[in-house]
Design brief:
By secondary structure, the protein is α/β, with parallel strands linked by helices. It has 2 domains: about 10-140 and about 280-370, Rossmann fold (3-Layer(aba) Sandwich), CATH 3.40.50.2300; about 145-270, Response regulator (Rossmann fold, 3-Layer(aba) Sandwich), CATH 3.40.50.2300. The protein contains 12 helices and 15 strands. It has helices at about 1-20, 40-60, 80-90, 105-115, 145-160, 175-190, 205-215, 225-240, 255-260, 280-295, 300-315, 325-335; strands at about 25-30, 65-75, 95-100, 120, 135-140, 165-170, 195-200, 220-225, 245-250, 270, 340-345, 345-355, 360-365, 370-375, 380. It has a 7-stranded mixed beta sheet, sandwiched between helices.
């Protein structure tokens, strides 16, 4: 009996050793703006990825494989994003890159991933044309073209908006794309524009443009801006007595607005698939876990990063990690478009975009936007 028992123990140990030997560490790159003007987005994005990866690993990983995040700061700069992508692809040999944070940087760096046949997955890039770069480019950040018309429609209904002024950043891919989509949505909804004013990234004094806007007596200001400029714009508008609603794009959907604009933050309308007020089981679980880990409330960018990690984990379940990184990248690129899931941001699936010059395009998100307005330090859902 003792000899048989010993043999059983040895066999079990051998099986355990074999299982351990077959387990792999799946390296996934994260290129996020952890410093610079976009740092408020990048920090939340990193937190969302880390929370999801920790949860997945604690539950046994994916097919027994552990996810290892390789996180790099791309500083919100195009040149740095390109350098980070090259490091993650050729030196760290990750199977996929999440990021970069800004659409500007994605336009510059995503072609590097496409050329190296490495999947790249944006969680905060909403400008037009990102996924036309190629079929290795994915994003779960819903495009401005999909969100802005609904945001304007709901805001106009609640505020009896008949005419608007437009204010946008004219030196950034994201804010210029937002302007283009705002302009089209306003034309489609037959809402006239009283004036169009512009600013540049890094500007701090917006009073001249806001004074011109006020003089045209708009019912609302349509604002395509990142939060670093958007928060001060709202403050200065209220100081000038311009107390009409603001209608913002994806860049304004951040709890940071309450820090930057404080009591002047009320009356900002934004649209997103995610809201902290959306009490679905998946979102409630995410918010609770995020607060427990980071002692702060999550935002849209944390939620989209969190969901993206789980989307990739679902695809990895269909991939037999071989150790041949190029084969694994190809297998993951094939598996990702088929993923359908429900997370903190709601029901999700991909749709293929049109590529440039007749080539296959990448993949955009199919999700339903939620429209919210800031009121008393909260984003309140409106319908």
């Amino acid at each position: 009996m003792n000899r048989i028992f010993s043999q059983s123990l040895l066999a079990a140990a051998a099986l355990g050793t074999a299982a351990f030997a077959n387990a792999a560490e799946v390296k996934i790159g994260v290129a996020a703006a952890l410093s610079g003007g976009a740092g408020q987005y990048g920090a939340a994005i990193r937190n969302g990825f880390q929370l999801a990866a920790d949860q997945i690993n604690a539950a046994g990983g994916v097919n027994g494989n552990t996810i290892k995040l390789v996180i790099e700061d791309e500083q919100g700069k195009k040149e740095e994003a390109i350098n980070v992508f090259k490091k993650l692809i050729f030196q760290d040999r990750v199977v996929l890159i999440f990021g970069p944070t800004l659409s500007n940087s994605a336009q510059a760096a995503d072609p590097v991933a496409q050329g190296a046949k490495t999947p790249v997955f944006g969680t905060s890039n909403t400008a037009d044309g990102i996924t036309s770069i190629g079929n290795y480019v994915f994003r779960n950040s819903v495009t401005e073209a999909d969100v802005l018309p609904e945001t304007i429609r709901i805001a106009a209904k609640h505020n009896n908006i008949k005419k608007v002024a437009v204010f946008y950043g004219n030196d950034d891919v994201f804010t210029k794309s937002g302007y283009d989509n705002f302009k089209k949505a306003l034309e489609d909804l037959k809402i006239p524009v009283t004036t169009t004013e512009t600013f540049a990234k890094g500007d701090v004094d917006f009073k001249a443009q806001l004074t011109k806007i006020k003089a045209t007596n708009p019912d609302a200001v349509v604002l395509s801006a990142l939060i670093a400029e958007g928060g001060p714009i709202m403050v200065q508008a209220r100081q000038l007595g311009l107390n009409v609603p603001f209608i913002g794009g994806n860049g304004m959907n951040s709890v940071k607005v309450f820090d930057l604009a404080k009591d002047k933050a009320d009356g900002l309308w934004v649209g997103s698939p995610w809201s902290i007020e959306n009490a679905t089981p998946e979102n409630t679980k995410f918010i609770s876990a995020y607060k427990a880990k980071y002692n702060v409330a999550p935002d849209q960018f944390a939620a989209q990063a969190y969901d993206a990690m789980y989307i990739v984990a679902e695809a990895l379940k269909k991939v037999k990690i071989s150790g041949n990184v190029q084969a694994d990248r190809q297998a993951l690129q094939t598996a990702l478009p088929e993923v359908k899931t429900t997370g903190a941001t709601g029901a999700f699936q991909f749709r293929q975009a049109q590529g440039a010059r007749g080539k296959p395009g990448g993949y955009d998100a199919v999700q339903t936007p939620i429209v919210m307005v800031t009121r008393g330090g909260r984003y309140v859902i409106e319908k």
